[in-house]
Amino acid sequence: MRLTVIGTGYLGAVHAACMAEIGHDVLGVDVDPEKVADLAEGRPPFYEPGFEDVLTRALDSGRLRFTTDLREAAAHGEVHFICVGTPQRAGSRAADLRYVDAVVDGLAPNLSAPCLLVGKSTVPVGTTARLAARVARLAPPGARVELAWNPEFLREGFAVDDTLRPDRIVTGVTGKAADETLRRVYAPMLAAGVPYLVTDPNTAELVKSAANAFLATKISFINAMAEVCDATGADVATLADAIGHDTRIGRQFLNAGLGFGGGCLPKDIRAFTARAQELGVGPAVAFLGQVDEINQRQRSRTVALAGRLLGGDLTGRRVTVLGATFKPNSDDVRDSPALAVAVELHRQGARVRVHDPEGAAKAVLAHPELRCGADLLTACQGAELVLHLTEWSEYRELDPVKLARVVRTPLLIDGRNALPHDAWRAAGWTVKALGRPA
Ligand code: UGA
């Protein structure tokens, strides 16, 4: 099928390459000519394991091209996927839909052949209906343009696998034709037995908001338990294992620590709250405000712990932060808890050095006041405190004996509860973590 994918960020670039991988003829579209040039030459504009391979294969097959021209896109696609960002609106908790609207405004007047517009971005419930009215107003008279919503559940770091082998596909359609078209798009996944749920657009949009709200709630729940554990000397890691054995609860997303960040969970729970308020059902999701607050508090609790461990004053103290990205296997520093802590430690006077296997460049670009160590050992040289804030596997594999020799004081905060504490203690380190007994 001839598909366009409009917006080539994490979501769109991966979707475009994966759709070509399963046999479609794909045109990726972006307003950023640099990004388009990079992608067209097989250079991923972001770090994502496995993406470069799938991108190269797709380009070599001749089934994937890129353009900045929406008119070319309008002529190419039987199906147009909208994959642009929906960030938090400045000065508000609501989602900023200007990029989604701009795609529709640019595309609709050029749609002469029958086609299907499919949104994949995370949007407030009701967006499909609103955009359908917009398309009806802007498309040429008699144009047959349908709208559908097909939320995306991929995780950064697993984006390719999540796209090719999703745990479910959800489509929100208003008619049989759109359903049939989307079934043809996803035919290989359907054949592989991927659960395929067809619903109305409002439900499809809500599924995404609900899924991310649930994940965020799960993380804040365990971090709330960590706070209670700290008040009692109990151990949140054991608690998570113990409740996680109950299959109704499940162990995943119960890793206590610095909490969630990134371009999705934080802004999605805020946008969901704002939309619920507009709909007059604010109280139904008011708890998400608490979820957000608990999450933010883990950052300040970590900074406070660092301050206490260094005797109450951070001024001039040498601190090393391991990890700058919001999660491992990504170079994404958007709303990164690790980076937020590094910035706050610096603001309070500490001499902070940051290390990250992939995210250092983006971290320094966002926060030029921070310094990055060239390599891990240099970053830790002379440190009075090391904070492990993003759980990259290379940190788990660190030799604590070797590291103890380069730091000034072998003092560690494990903000992700992911290092082997016994081995570090055996190597002479004092190890602290939120929700864990000393
Ligand atoms: C999240 C969802 O998991 C995806 O399903 C969704 O498609 C995506 O948002 C999106 O809306 O686009 P992602 O932001 O890539 O994916 O990252 P997650 O793996 O969900 O992690 C989010 C944050 O939660 C990270 O900062 C991570 O460190 C933190 N986290 C995760 C915890 O603090 N504890 C946990 O137990 C799990």
From TrEMBL:
Belongs to the UDP-glucose/GDP-mannose dehydrogenase family. Coiled coil: none annotated. NAD(+) binds at D30, K35, T86, T122, E156, K267, R334. This is UDP-glucose 6-dehydrogenase. Keywords: NAD, Oxidoreductase. The active site is at C264 (nucleophile). Substrate binds at F153, L154, R155, E156, K208, F253, L254, N255, A256, G257, G261, K327. It catalyses: UDP-alpha-D-glucose + 2 NAD(+) + H2O = UDP-alpha-D-glucuronate + 2 NADH + 3 H(+). Pathway: Nucleotide-sugar biosynthesis; UDP-alpha-D-glucuronate biosynthesis; UDP-alpha-D-glucuronate from UDP-alpha-D-glucose: step 1/1. It comes from the Bacteria. Residues 320-421 form the UDP-glucose/GDP-mannose dehydrogenase C-terminal domain. Its EC number is 1.1.1.22. Pfam families: UDPG_MGDP_dh, UDPG_MGDP_dh_C, UDPG_MGDP_dh_N.
